[in-house]
Design goal:
Layout: H1 5-17, H2 20-27, H3 31-45, E1 50-53, E2 56-59, H4 61-83, E3 91-95, H5 103-110, E4 116-118, H6 124-133, E5 138-141, E6 151-166, E7 186-189, H7 197-205, E8 210-213, H8 219-227, E9 232-237, E10 248-252, E11 257-267, H9 273-289, E12 299-300
Parallel strand pairs: 3-4, 3-5, 7-8, 7-9, 11-12
Antiparallel strand pairs: 1-2, 5-11, 6-9, 6-10, 6-11
Helix pairs in contact: 1-2, 1-3, 1-4, 2-3, 5-9
């Protein structure tokens, strides 16, 4: 059975959008043309891939099984075209978690990993969608499950996290703090806590009962809010350069030390040669700079790494 890539691509986009009109728009074809491609694919496969009804569009069981390999088929076709193109495009790398400055880490390897074209993703969800659509080749930020099928990631860096709090906070003069000492303080979050996986898990693990939500208008604005609330605190990776905010203090966390995990993320069907260069350069820098040191008796991670975090995926 020979599959038509255009038909498979039409299926994948529709499965991701669950809306024929939007899917057709992303492919720059008419909705009628999209429907015909999917109908031909269903005829070839001998099964329905979508249920269409008053409640909208949803995948059948066959469609759910077909989606992961269909994504890989589209990605492999795109990689095959790129492999014989007259000019290979630069490796398109996006980042997320901007408040924690992911470019600090990526900049340390970018110059040794070939030509990169950098983007500015909003969050993990938008970046994974861009990867699956083939709009970017790789991404860098904190990965947490569940990830869509067809994506892989490699742990690059485990960065200690500090508490930042007002100089008027009762614990501000301490040289270091245990996370559980903050249980009576208010965790200040730059957005809805249920969308900020690391902060959400930290609060659950260390019994932080009180939280407050801010609007992410940049690190300086966010930290100024923290400095203005004597009973509040937030978390920032230790190497993030802090803006000069009056009335703010950064205190190391110990027993255990929370670690923020930075990972490289890519689509398994992407054949861009720069991907291997970037992954290799990240691994080399991690070894040189001791980025992946982890001791389960001393450190805390929401998802502990494998025994060899530098070589694994996922």
């Amino acid at each position: 059975m020979d599959l038509d890539v255009a038909q498979v691509r039409a299926f994948v986009r529709t499965a991701e959008e669950l809306h024929f009109g939007r899917a057709a728009g992303t492919l720059a074809i008419s909705q009628q043309a999209l429907s015909k491609r999917i109908a031909r694919l269903e005829s070839l496969l001998g099964t329905e891939l979508f249920r269409r009804g008053g409640n909208g569009v949803r995948l059948t069981e066959a469609g759910q099984r077909f989606l992961p390999p269909a994504r890989q088929t589209v990605a492999a076709a795109d990689a095959a075209v790129a492999a014989v193109s007259a000019k290979e495009h630069p490796l398109r790398v996006d980042v997320w978690g901007h408040l924690y400055a992911p470019m600090r880490t990526l900049a340390q390897v970018a110059g040794r990993a070939g030509e990169l074209a950098l983007g500015h993703g909003r969050d993990l969800s938008s970046v994974t969608t861009a990867l699956l659509h083939g709009d970017i080749d790789a991404a860098f930020g904190r990965v947490h499950p569940p990830l869509p099928a067809g994506l892989a990631h490699r742990l690059v860096r485990l960065e200690p996290v500090d508490a930042v709090l007002s100089t008027d906070h009762p614990l501000a003069a301490e040289p270091a703090l245990r996370p559980d000492q903050l249980s009576d303080s208010t965790l200040w979050a730059p957005g809805a806590l249920d969308r900020l996986d690391f902060l959400h898990r930290f609060a659950d693990r260390f019994g932080i009962r009180n939280t407050a939500t801010s609007v992410n208008l940049g690190l300086a604005h966010f930290l100024a809010e923290v400095a203005g609330e004597p009973r509040s605190f937030s978390l920032v990776p230790a190497d993030v350069p802090l803006p000069e905010v009056p009335g703010l203090r950064s205190v190391p966390l110990v027993d255990p030390t929370p670690l923020y995990a930075w990972s490289l993320l890519w689509s398994t069907g992407n054949g861009h040669p720069g991907l291997n260069d970037l992954a290799t350069t990240c691994t080399e820098e991690a070894g040189r700079s001791r980025w992946l040191e982890y001791d389960s008796t001393r450190d805390w991670l929401p998802e502990p790494p494998t025994s060899d975090p530098g070589s694994g995926q996922g």
